[in-house]
Design brief:
The chain is of the alpha/beta class. The protein folds into two domains: 251 residues, Aldehyde Dehydrogenase, Chain A, domain 1; 185 residues, 3-Layer(aba) Sandwich (Aldehyde Dehydrogenase, Chain A, domain 2). Helix content is 40%, strand content 22%. The protein has 15 helices and 22 strands. Strand 10, helix 9 and strand 11 form a beta-alpha-beta unit. The chain is globular.
C-alpha cells in the first residue's frame, strides 16, 4: 500500500445549496485503504482498456453521450443545487458534455493515426500510445463540462481516469462515474475519489499515477505542478484568467454590449474565461457603459431552478465574501460604483464599476463573480498594453469594425486565445488553454488528445 497520509478516520463532507444555504447531502471521504484500492483497480483496468479498439471506444463514448442526454434534467438539477448555476445553463452544460463525447468518438482515431516520417530507414513513424492512469483534479464552476473535456480525449486515447472533484459538487462527481457505468464502459476505466485537498495532492505521488490534469486556481496550480515535477510526471494546468473585453471606437456598440454582457455574466461570472476587465474606447465609453449598465440593472435574483432565471448565487458564501472585499478595496482606491455592490449570503448583486485603474483589486486580481470593471482607453495600442498588463494570459475579446487591423496584431496579445467580435469560450474543435499564470498545456481538439500520450518513435531498417 502506498502511504498517502495519516489516517482519515471517518471524515464526511457536505454539499450545500448556495441559494438557501441548506445541506443537501453528506458523503463519506475515501479512506487511505479505499483510495489505494481504487488506484490499483483503475491501473489494472488500463491493461485491457489500452488494447480496446477505437471503434469500441467510440461506441462507448456515443453511449455516454446518449446517457447524458437521457438524464440531462437530473444532472442539471444536481449542478444547480450544488453550485447555484441557473438551470438553463446547467442543461446547456450537460448537452455540451454530450457533444464532446461525440466529437472524440468521431475524431480520436484519425487524430492518433501513426505519423509516417521519411528518413533513411525502410520505415519510420511516430506511434501514439496511452500513458496509463491519469489523475484529474477538477473545480466546481462547470462541474460536468470540466470533467468531460478531460475524460473524452484522455480515455479515447486509451488511458484510464481517476477524478478528484471539488467537494461542494460531490453528487455531480458521483453522477459522472454513473454515466460511464450506465454507458457500459469496462469496470474501473473511470472512477471518482472523494478526498480533501491535502490527501488529493498526495495521490499525485502514487507510483501508478502517470500524469495529472488540474483545472483550478493559480495557487492550486503551483502546488500540483510542484508535486508532479518532483515525481517527474507530466501535468496540464488550466488556471485562472483576467480576460479583457476590448471595445474599439469602430465597434457596433449594441453588438459589443451584448457580447460583453454575456462574457461577464455567464455562470454568474464564475468562469476562468469570463470577460473581467472592460477596456472601452473614449469615443464610445459613455454610450457603452450606459447601455451595459441598463442590462445589468435588469438582472434579478430568483430561484435558480426557475427556467427564467439568468443570475444565481455564487457557489459558496466565502466566494461572495471575496468578491465583496475586491469591490470594496477598489472603491476605497477611487473606483466609482454604478450598480450593485451588496451581498446577502452567497448572493452578490451584479455590479458595475467605473474609473478603475491598475493598482485596484478590480483590475489586478481575477474577479470570479458578477462584477464588471470599466477602464477608459484612447486607442488600440493602449488596449493591448493594458490587456497584457496582467499575470494571466487565457483569452481576450476584441469588439471592432475592422477585423483585418486586429488580425495583423494578433501576435501582440499575450493570450491563449483571441476572439474577435465574440466572447471567449471553449469548443471541442479548438485547442483551449493559456500562458503565463493561466497555466500550460492544451485541452480539446487535436492538441488536447496529444497531452497524455507517449509519442513513440519507431525506426525500421
Amino acid at each position: 500500500m502506498c502511504n498517502l497520509a495519516a489516517n482519515l478516520e471517518a471524515m464526511k463532507v457536505s454539499s450545500v445549496n448556495p441559494w438557501n444555504l441548506k445541506v443537501i447531502e453528506e458523503f463519506n471521504v475515501h479512506s487511505i485503504e479505499e483510495t489505494d484500492s481504487v488506484i490499483q483497480d483503475v491501473n489494472d483496468a488500463f491493461y485491457e482498456w489500452r488494447t480496446t479498439s477505437f471503434s469500441e471506444r467510440s461506441r462507448l463514448f456515443n453511449a455516454a453521450s446518449d446517457v447524458l442526454v437521457k438524464n440531462k434534467n437530473k444532472y442539471a438539477q444536481h449542478i444547480t443545487s450544488e453550485m447555484g448555476k441557473p438551470i438553463v445553463e446547467s442543461l446547456a452544460e450537460v448537452e455540451k458534455c454530450a457533444w464532446v463525447c461525440r466529437f472524440y468518438a468521431e475524431n480520436a482515431e484519425s487524430f492518433l493515426q501513426p505519423k509516417e516520417i521519411e528518413t533513411d530507414a525502410q520505415r519510420s513513424f511516430v506511434k501514439y500510445d496511452p500513458l496509463g492512469v491519469i489523475y484529474a483534479i477538477m473545480p466546481w464552476n462547470f462541474p460536468f463540462w470540466q470533467v468531460f473535456r478531460f475524460a473524452a480525449p484522455t480515455l479515447m486515447a486509451g488511458n484510464v481516469g481517476i477524478l478528484k472533484h471539488a467537494l461542494n459538487v460531490t453528487r455531480c462527481a458521483l453522477d459522472i462515474e454513473e454515466v460511464f457505468v450506465e454507458a457500459g464502459f469496462p469496470q474501473n476505466v473511470f472512477r471518482t475519489l472523494i478526498l480533501d485537498n491535502d490527501h488529493a495532492s498526495k495521490v499525485i505521488e502514487h507510483p501508478m499515477i502517470k500524469a495529472v490534469s488540474l483545472t483550478g486556481s493559480e495557487r492550486a496550480g503551483v502546488a500540483v505542478a510542484s508535486i508532479a515535477g518532483a515525481s517527474l510526471k507530466p501535468s496540464l494546468l488550466e488556471l485562472g484568467g483576467s480576460n479583457a473585453v476590448i471595445v474599439l471606437k469602430d465597434a457596433d456598440v449594441d453588438q459589443a454590449v451584448d457580447t460583453g454582457f454575456k462574457a461577464r455574466f455567464l455562470n454568474t461570472g464564475q468562469s476562468c474565461i469570463a470577460g473581467k476587465r472592460f477596456l472601452v474606447a473614449d469615443e464610445v465609453f459613455d454610450e457603452y457603459v450606459e447601455k451595459f449598465n441598463a442590462k445589468v440593472r435588469e438582472l434579478k435574483f430568483n430561484e435558480p431552478t426557475d427556467s427564467s432565471t439568468r443570475i444565481g448565487p455564487l457557489a459558496r458564501v466565502d466566494l461572495a465574501e471575496g468578491i465583496e472585499r475586491q469591490v470594496n478595496d477598489s472603491i476605497e482606491k477611487g473606483a466609482r460604483l454604478l450598480t450593485g455592490g451588496t451581498r446577502d449570503g452567497a448572493k452578490y448583486d451584479p455590479t458595475v464599476l467605473v474609473d478603475v485603474e491598475p493598482g485596484m483589486a478590480a483590475f489586478d486580481e481575477e474577479l470570479f463573480g458578477p462584477v464588471a470593471p470599466f477602464i477608459r482607453i484612447q486607442d488600440l495600442d493602449e488596449a493591448i498594453d493594458l490587456s497584457n498588463d496582467s499575470n494571466y494570459g487565457l483569452g481576450v475579446t476584441i469588439c471592432t469594425g475592422d477585423t483585418d487591423a486586429i488580425l495583423e496584431r494578433v501576435g501582440e496579445f499575450e493570450e491563449g486565445a483571441v476572439f474577435i467580435n465574440e466572447f471567449v469560450k471553449s469548443d471541442p474543435r479548438l485547442p483551449f488553454g493559456g500562458i503565463k499564470n493561466s497555466g500550460y498545456g492544451r485541452e480539446l481538439a487535436l492538441e488536447g488528445i496529444l497531452e497524455f500520450v507517449n509519442a513513440k518513435t519507431v525506426y525500421v531498417k
